[in-house]
Amino acid sequence: xxxxxxxxxxxxxxxxxxxxxxxxxxxxxxxxxxxxxxxxxxxxxxxxxxxxxxxxxxxxxxxxxxxxxxxxxxxxxxxxxxxxxxxxxxxxxxxxxxxxxxxxxxxxxxxxxxxxxxxxxxxxxxxxxxxxxxxxxxxxxxxxxxxxxxxxxxxxxxxxxxxxxxxxxxxxxxxxxxxxxxxxxxxxxxx
Length: 191
Description:
mainly beta, Porin, eight-stranded antiparallel beta barrel
């Protein structure tokens, strides 16, 4: 499943490259507050328990959804991040579902292509699971940190697409820190 997501990400990047390489931005400056005044809905799916920092002992899919709010003026000095709330709903035999919230930054390298980063916290339906093969996933707590990385493109002024990586863990603050990740693709709608 990871190879398919990487291939899809590469196709997205290759499809975007010719269009964005001629746009102003990258060496002319990175824009952080482009969508600071907008709401945004993100919806997609991907692979459950798949990412570079967690063991892939569980498998399945994940339905991902997020809602972003406009940034507050007080956040302008730190790049106008937008507050967000989101969820990973696992489609697996041994699921751990996640509800998360925090702040999201977007750095536009061109007028249409951006990289994103989110930092916040999560509440999870379980802190420990054992799958049918006997592999255990011990997150250490039901309340954890949430980190997210994205790469996206604005297809139109309102519609976009992005690849995402969600990482949930306790940053080694607990007795166990197996972590949980999801990777996937989603559509975005700004209004």
